[in-house]
């Protein structure tokens, strides 16, 4: 399943607008906060797909019957741009376990690059709901690499891939290289093009640099 949440009118589009806006991007704290708020929105949206069980709660005046999520959740993010989204999701999934993937683009002199995987910190994911967050889904290579590294710790009950802006090419690559069952892709918007250096157009630029400052 691929669900483009931004196709429906909601506050999500306001936050994506500000992420894209060059006049707002100069405020790194606001950029990070918008990533966090979008993480919260995605957490709420995908919570509709979780399993629920009935439980009762004692109130001052009686007992209320409620349905609460019953899945064990692991929230994973690709460093470093995924951290604010990760925090936003934890605001809602506050009992979740956590995973962190260190992967980056390693460029050659000719301008081509490969995804360099360095480190994974992750609990066992067998039978749990896995959420992998990364603001940008450009080529899709980082996301696929992250998923394959995590499932070495077991097979999740269901995996939710969450990105704010994706390229059409990245969506198709991710769909082709991940299982067809028990994987959902949640997106804010899908852009048509990428540059020769695989940056999404119109996109928003380098999310990691905008959130935390330029890297060498």
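Q: What amino acid sequence fits the structure above?
A:
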């Amino acid at each position: 399943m691929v669900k483009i949440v931004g196709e429906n009118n909601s506050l999500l589009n306001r936050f994506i607008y500000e992420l894209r806006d060059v006049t707002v991007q100069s405020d790194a704290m606001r950029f990070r906060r918008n990533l966090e708020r979008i993480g919260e929105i995605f957490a709420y949206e995908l919570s509709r797909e979780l399993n629920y069980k009935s439980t009762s709660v004692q109130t001052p005046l009686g007992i209320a019957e409620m349905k609460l999520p019953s899945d064990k959740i692991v929230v994973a993010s690709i460093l470093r741009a995924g951290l604010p989204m990760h925090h936003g999701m934890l605001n809602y999934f506050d009992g979740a376990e956590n995973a962190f993937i260190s992967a980056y683009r390693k460029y050659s002199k000719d301008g081509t690059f490969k995804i360099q995987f360095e480190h994974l910190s992750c609990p066992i994911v067998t039978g749990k709901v896995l959420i992998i967050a990364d603001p940008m889904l450009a080529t899709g290579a980082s996301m696929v690499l992250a998923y394959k590294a995590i499932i070495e710790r077991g097979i999740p009950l269901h995996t939710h891939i969450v990105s704010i802006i994706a390229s059409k090419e990245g969506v198709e690559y991710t769909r082709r290289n991940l299982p067809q069952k028990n994987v959902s892709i949640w997106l804010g918007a899908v852009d048509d093009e990428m540059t020769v250096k695989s940056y999404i157009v119109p996109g928003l630029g380098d999310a990691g640099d905008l959130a935390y400052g330029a890297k060498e």
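Q: And what stands out in the fold?
A: The chain has one domain: 2-49+72-211.
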